[in-house]
Backbone:
């Protein structure tokens, strides 16, 4: 991966700032009746996320349009609401039963299980409401909603991946299984963040095909690196319980391929992802820099 | 309420048939991987619902367009998915903790709590995906998605009503509280079923205003009658546990106003709802007949 003249830290910081501002504006205040659920939604949304999916959407928008498309932060905020809803439900006692997320009490620990379930539900609903209000041509808005709902759904989407993950605990993981879980559980939302950012910026069908290829490769690389970090970094640096995948016998990439092969696979996937963006020249530098960060990060 | 020449039973049966056919086509089969969640989604969706919200959407479509708009069954199916998702989550141990729904095991009883949570999540997602694929002009589709997401949300919508309902258990119910809960928890989705059906059929802003008024009144009347039935009809006839509202000290209309006043309020609300449809003459006969059924039903 060759060096590019992009300051990825400032791209990430700008993405966090724009996304947080949009989320602040789009989520009901904690004083809005009924107050408990709005407190719970904000608790989890503002728990310190890196906003990687919104940043990918924004950089994909720049790749297509040449500059940051006005209003794209709302698309990023909606995607972040969907990501946060999935974390809230994933942490519930009936699922992963986690008490901490990014060093803070999980939603059900702070607000009780009933409110946590409904807060997750409500973040999904609000995400689609925000998408319906995007400042884009109606046909693009409809396309974005359909793509995102598909990526969050049960067939090769986020929820389907969660179910596969639950069903496969304590089974011996195969390459096919871990690939299917990763592509669906985390890969689909990362891929659609890139594609939706492009569509918002006016992507043609050819652009959509390229961004889909890029997003698929980058999304899988991201999850492989996540698996490796879970095994190799301690909990303090990771901000969540390290080694948990191994303890719960989750189907992970290193469990199937080993750590060294996993690192090599992630690097190869990123190279392949970059190749999908050749047509865009330097306009894709920001998107590439963020993707490279995804696989070189330490937490 | 004067007699009309409409056979409401055949309208209802036709609505069930069209909705079930659309749901059958739109939900992944039980063989689709991962199978467990698709089984859970279908278990709850095909548990014998009366499809009242889809029927209201269809009759509102006829009120605006003069005939049943082609493709409106998919809109009804999406609304029914949202209704079913809310029932699955409402029945969970952390919320109402119900074992039976329409005489069958609730989703978490049949499939476990993790899959039930995700099945509810997935029905919401699939609903928005189906809405994004409606055969309507993109601007109408975007309007429908925004209206429905708003009606399902936390601010005067379905989830907000559920939270108010949970928070107010064991509190003495006031007229303001029970009104707020009913308008949000069940009223909002019934109202938006009517409005979305109209928008799908090409409603103007004036039409939307009339249908909103009609839907608000009919939705509140429906829930008042639901409360009265819970108190006055036995469990076998009701198909669910009768008297549960009183046992759990829920905020209900009869708890505040008494049974006789509740019945009178429901009848008055339906008369007011009908008045909102005067402009449509006999084209609204089907919609009125269904609304009258909502308040005259015995289960």
Residues:
């Amino acid at each position: 991966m060759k060096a590019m003249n992009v300051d990825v830290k400032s791209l990430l910081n700008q993405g966090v700032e724009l996304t947080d501002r949009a989320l602040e504006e789009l989520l009901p205040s904690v004083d809005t009746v009924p107050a408990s659920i709005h407190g719970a939604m904000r608790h989890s949304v503002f728990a310190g996320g890196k906003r990687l999916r919104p940043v990918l959407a924004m950089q994909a928008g720049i790749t297509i349009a040449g500059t940051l498309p006005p209003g794209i932060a709302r698309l990023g905020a909606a995607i972040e609401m969907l990501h946060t809803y999935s974390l809230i439900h994933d942490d519930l006692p009936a699922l992963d039963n986690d008490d901490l997320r990014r060093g803070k009490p999980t939603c059900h620990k702070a607000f009780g299980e009933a409110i946590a379930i409904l807060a997750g539900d409500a973040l999904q609903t609000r995400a689609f409401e925000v998408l319906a209000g995007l400042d884009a041509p109606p046909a693009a808005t409809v396309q974005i909603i359909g793509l995102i709902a598909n990526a969050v759904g049960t067939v090769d989407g986020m929820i389907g991946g969660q179910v596969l993950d639950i069903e496969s605990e304590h089974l011996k993981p195969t390459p096919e299984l871990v690939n299917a879980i990763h592509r669906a559980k985390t890969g689909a939302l990362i891929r659609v963040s890139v594609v939706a950012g492009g569509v918002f910026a006016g992507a043609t069908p050819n652009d959509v095909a390229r961004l889909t290829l890029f997003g698929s490769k980058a999304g899988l690389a991201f999850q492989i690196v996540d698996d490796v970090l879970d095994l190799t970094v301690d909990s303090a640096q990771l901000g969540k319980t390290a080694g948990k995948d191994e303890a719960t016998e989750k189907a992970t990439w290193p469990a199937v391929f080993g750590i060294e092969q996993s690192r090599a696979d992630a690097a190869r996937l990123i190279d392949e992802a970059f190749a999908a963006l050749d047509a865009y020249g330097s306009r894709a530098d920001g998107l590439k820099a963020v993707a490279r960060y995804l696989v070189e990060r330490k937490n």
Q: What stands out?
A: Chain A is about 70% helix and 0% strand. Chain A touches chain B through 52 residues (CB under 8 Å).
